[in-house]
Amino acid sequence: MSHILRLLARVAVDLDQIGDPWALVGGLAVGARARPRFTQDIDLAVAVDSDHSAERVVAALRKRDYELDTLLEQEQRGRIGTVRMLPPGAATNSLLVDLLFAACGVEVEIAAAAERMRLARDLDLPVARTGHLVAMKLLSHDQQRRPADLDDLRVLVEACDARELERARTAVRAIVERGFHRGRDLEGDLDAWIQRRTAAP
Fold it and tell me: What is the pTM of this model?
């Protein structure tokens, strides 16, 4: 098992003990759902109903020797969006754990719909559904800073069946309705990616 997966296994045990629903998202989830790729981050959507609950999760992890690195606010909604932590046993800033509490507005749905998958021997954990990963990538992609995002979107959309495309559409509508869309036309972007897939030879 690789170093990042060993750390992920530790984080999974800790979050399960804390008790709030969660799901693997980000690059590792893209790798599990569509195409393996290199990543140095562990991204997790955690289902909480308030900033107070998010702070409780962070405090519980700090008691387990995680170090707080960065707290990012979701400015449009005034919520704790993402908390970045350094896990026990990780070299300084070599591998970070990003806890998404209110970064996209559908973390609760992501965690509720997650499917347990085997990423390695003795490592089974909840992984976000492909449609939810598409919705998250549509919201967060940055072609200049993270060109790999476009490749992720392409392989994720290609991996979607009709049910997952509908899941993606439901998620982007919820993101917009809840005010987490950052001014982006997420549904229009989703339509464009679906048309691109349909037009591909």
Answer: 0.94
Pinpoint the alpha helices (H) of the chain.
3-18, 26-33, 51-63, 107-113, 130-140, 148-159, 162-177, 186-199
Strand partners, 41: 96
Distance separating alpha carbons of residues 136 and 152, to the nearest angstrom: 11
User: What residue segments make up the domains of the chain, in order of their start?
Assistant: 3-199
Nearest to 37 by CA among 28, 25, 24: 28
3-199 sits in which CATH class?
alpha beta
pLDDT tens-digit map of 159-187: 999 999 999 999 999 999 999 999 999 99
Own/partner long-range contacts of 117-125 (Cβ < 8 Å, ≥24 apart): 117/32, 119/5, 119/8, 119/28, 119/32, 120/1, 120/2, 120/5, 121/1, 122/1, 122/9, 123/1, 123/5, 123/8, 123/9, 123/12, 125/8, 125/12, 125/24
Query: Sign of the CA dihedral 83, 88, 89, 92?
Result: positive
